Amino acid sequence: MLVQVRRTFLSALPEAKRSVQPSRGMRLVQFQAPHVPGTRLGLEEANGGGVIDLNAFDPSLPKTMREFLEQGEAALSVAKRAQESGQPALKRSGVTLLSPITRPDKVVCVGLNYVDHCQEQNVPVPTEPIIFSKFPSSIVGPYDDIVLPPLSTEVDWEVELAFVIGKEGKNIKAADAMSHVAGFTVAHDVSSRDWQMKRNGKQWLLGKTFDTFCPLGPALVTKDSVADPHNLSIQCRVNEELVQNSNTKQMVFKTEALVAWVSQFVTLYPGDVFLTGTPPGVGVFRKPPVFLKKGDRVRCEIEGLGTIVNNVV
């Protein structure tokens, strides 16, 4: 039986409905292409199609997602015009997708935020969000390698729904929270369990923030593309074995509640990334525990948002 969470700002949130993917939303990406230098902004076509070069469509647009989001509706309207323009797309094989957001001001993470993950550990469901962080330097792209650090022998997988802030705010009410969210993406919260659970006073930061420990992507899917982010299938496979299989409706604290809670403590800025917790099936709680090793391949997928695939080296 699901445990009731006693937080007043959750009581008014709407009941989950089955996700429908409207056609008017956008899949924003950062990419590199051999014919132009540096990072560029693009629109990923549906079903793994090509990438529309937004900087070619309008050279005045910034070339990073964080700067794009800082420009607000003005930049989004340009992207929408590009989507409707019929501009030819670059072939997917000719571009390299980067993380949809790089160098955010902060990466906010949430622990024990799935009811079924709490049940897996036989721990109480939290009555307030458990917040920790990764350094932005841990972010890598959707198909980049995860590098096993020499300092750790217990590296684990965690598929997570992530959302990205699109508008600055402080002390944001839950009812207004979605106006501050730009969209959603897939995250892999790679975790060094020995450093998280045994070392450094059992504080989580160092175990969570090794370089390459935050793959994101493949796109920032704008919120108007996701009818209900809290009713999406979420899965992780290691070497094609299904190890995590749940639904975001199991989240204890939903997007609106997390924005409201965290913004009481810090100002949220465009580009800030929230990782919203993982479902059951992680390696550390298996009997015996299982950890990532060189040569493994991890696939994280969320319904309607896409799939990221990272090799372990």
From TrEMBL:
Pfam families: FAA_hydrolase. Belongs to the FAH family. GO terms for molecular function: metal ion binding; oxaloacetate tautomerase activity. It comes from Ornithorhynchus anatinus. This is Fumarylacetoacetate hydrolase domain containing 2A. Keywords: Metal-binding. It comes from the Eukaryota. InterPro entries: FAH (IPR051121), Fumarylacetoacetase-like_C (IPR011234), Fumarylacetoacetase_C_sf (IPR036663). The lineage of its organism: Eukaryota, Metazoa, Chordata, Craniata, Vertebrata. The keyword Signal does not apply. Residues 106-313 form the Fumarylacetoacetase-like C-terminal domain. GO terms for biological process: oxaloacetate metabolic process. SUPFAM superfamilies: FAH.
